[in-house]
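Quarterly update, task 2.4: iron/sulfur cluster-bound model.
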Amino acid sequence: MNVSTKAMDKSAFTGAVLSKLRRRYGSSLHTELVNRNIVELFVAVFLSPQCTDKQTNRATVKLFEKYRTFGDYADSDLRTLMRLLSGLNYYKTKARNLKRSASIIVNRFNGKVPRTLSELMELPGVGRKVANVILNEGFGINEGIAVDTHCAVVARRLGLSRKKDPAMIEDDLKRKFRTKDWGSVSNLFIALGRDTCTARAKRCEDCVLRNLCPSSTAE
Ligand code: SF4
């Protein structure tokens, strides 16, 4: 039986979605970007747009050996930084922005990663999604929901948003889920979007949400 959103109270629907996804993927899902501290988390998330996590993790191994603090990145030689990041898409722009952002963090924020979305988004190269991931993963702060392509696909198929723009999808999701769950929503939707509900194909027969989802094609 498919229990659609129409047949269920909206908060019961979102609660059931989260509970099934937590059972499938665990309740403490975190980014797959390798990091040991807040500096490494910032750098890994900063470099991750338009790259797979595997690509980013490959690039950060040598980077994290060479640079430890934001001061190290701010003082780094740009050519060396570009060479170390050359396995990533847009590596020249990312290297320039990383050096500039690190310098701002040192000079304006005392070497500490800022803890608000607006301050983070003032840094060159930091967009809304990156800022949300840093806040949630680094500090457990839920100021927004990080919406990437996986999260967007799942949100639309579940009928939680009709929008295409990630910021507008984020607004729809923020209205539908409790603030304390915002970090989980992003991580769980991304996990489902990677292995079962991909943009190219949905495997509804294998999906834990098959009896809830309005787009399910499972019998
Ligand atoms: S039931 Fe199908 S469309 Fe719905 S979330 Fe699962 S895989 Fe995606």
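Highlight for this quarter: The chain has eleven helices and no strands.
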